[in-house]
Amino acid sequence: MNDLDVFARLLAPEGQALLAELRDHDPADELAAATRLRREHPAALVSAALGQARLRQRAVAKFGADARRMYFTPNGVEQSTRATVADHRAARFAALGVRTLADLCCGIGGDALALARAGIRVLAVDRDPLACAAARANAEALGLAELIEVRCADVTEVDTAGFDAVFVDPARRGKTPARGAGRGASGRGGSGRIFDPEAYEPPLSWAVEAARAAPCAALKIAPGVPHEALPADAETEWISDGGDVKEAVVWFGPGGPVRGGRRATLLPAGDSLLGAARPDPAGDEADRAPVGPVGDWLYEPDGAVIRAHLVADVAEQLDGRLIDPTIAYITADRLTATPYATAYALTDVLPFNVKKLKALLRERGVGIAVIKKRGSAVEPEELRKKLKLGGGRTSCTIFLTRVGGAPAMLLGRPAAEVAEGPVTPGR
User: Fold this and answer.
1) 136 neighbors 118 (Cβ within 8 angstroms)
2) pTM of the predicted model as reported, rounded to 2 decimal places
3) Dist. CA 222–CA 135, nearest whole Å
4) Strand 217-221 to strand 165-168: parallel, antiparallel, or no bridges (unpaired)?
5) CA-to-CA distance for 263 and 256, rounded, in angstroms?
6) How far apart are CA 112 and CA 103, in angstroms?
């Protein structure tokens, strides 16, 4: 019995009954559960149901309560877009007037579901038969089958003429091709992330040309893509969710995307910062930002802001400056509210010295330390072991970084905590 046959049996009444029984299954009891269930059900079906139960539990982090009704492949859980990010993208497509869209490399259908919920009719294409079966089952399970057509095909051979928009999510992992898989099979097995955009499946160059041929398009790419690899006639949006950078999206078309623009979008609030096109897309944003002495406040820009090379733009908004020309920390003399960076009230700026730091923390009764690093060779956990913090209740944030090219330690507290108690500068 192949994977597709087993998956089909999961959708049948016997499989559904097994999945219902395993809804709140504890993975620690899997061996006992498997032994018990195999007395009444085929071993292959029990294994598939247990595997699906595990995947659903993992997928809750991305899909919330919907995960309990959805169907996954191992790579589908790993590579699917987080629902909050997919919803944001679908809303942007809808705002551009998109009503029909071809979703190429759809995987288990995470983006297709968000698009359909935004009222967009979707053709979802992938060459992995198992991923397509999961995408169909997900559309049915969430009541969106009327808006989603799933097609098992090579995405490079699909005619997208007649659609308002195209969305391409190339596979970005090394692969051991599954039986029947090929280009456009985003549910394949993988051996690691791919960083060369031309090694995507399909390559970024093909996806860009497919996007340019469409009235409107978006390409999902890895957030670490080199800026020089980005097309100059498109806008690239870096998206973070809860402070973690999740992906970058290259947008083509009129009515919204800015040619050559770089955008940082922060979810769940949805704040979005757009930077204009630059003559040197590969250059560091620090080249345009002033550098100066450390002030009373330190700002840690969101990862999407850093990836989009918009640190200088945020520094300008804050009337701030960089602490070092190569470090993405902003400093200022007064506190200014911004969604694009986390503010800290600084108490100390010191040359790096573990012995002095340990004595200072002991003197102040610091027992809780958050250690951050940027531009330092010191590993936070190694430093934590050397500090041997006591049981004090005082907290402190320690930044291991460089100031004016020299290793430094900056100590402070988040601005949100400052309102709850005084901060006594040690400088």
Assistant:
1) no
2) 0.88
3) 23
4) parallel
5) 12
6) 7
Q: Looking at this protein, which amino acid is placed at residue 410?
A: L
Q: Are strands 262-267 and 366-373 parallel, antiparallel or unpaired?
A: unpaired
> Which of 10-19, 88-97, 190-199, 334-343 is predicted with the least confidence, judged by mean pLDDT?
190-199
pLDDT tens digits for range 116-126: 999 999 999 99
Tally the C-alpha atoms within 13 A of residue 369's C-alpha that lie toward its C-beta. 29
For residue 362, what are the contacts with CB-CB under 8 A and spacing of at least 6?
390
**Using a CB cutoff of 8 Å and minimum separation of 24, what contacts does 279-286 make?**
281/227, 281/228, 281/230, 281/232, 282/226, 282/227, 282/228, 283/309, 284/309, 284/326, 285/309, 285/310, 285/311, 285/312, 285/313, 286/311, 286/312, 286/322, 286/325, 286/326, 286/327, 286/328
Question: 202 preceded by cis ω (within 30°)?
Answer: yes
The CA distance from 28 to 32, in Å, is 9
Helix (H, G, I), strand (E, B) or coil at 245: strand
Do residues 217 and 210 touch, judged by C-beta distance below 8 A? yes
Residue 284 sits at φ, ψ, to 5 deg, of: -85, 135
- pLDDT, one tens digit per residue, over 50-101 is 999 999 999 999 999 999 999 999 989 988 999 999 999 999 999 999 999 9
Residue 230 CB: number of other CB atoms within 10 A? 22
DSSP-derived 3-state class of residue 128: coil
Query: Is 259:232 a contact under the CB 8 Å cutoff?
Result: yes
The separation between CA 338 and the C-alpha centre of its own chain, rounded to angstroms, equals 21
Cα-only R_g, the chain = 25
User: Could you give the CA distance from residue 413 to residue 409 in angstroms, rounded to a whole number?
Assistant: 13
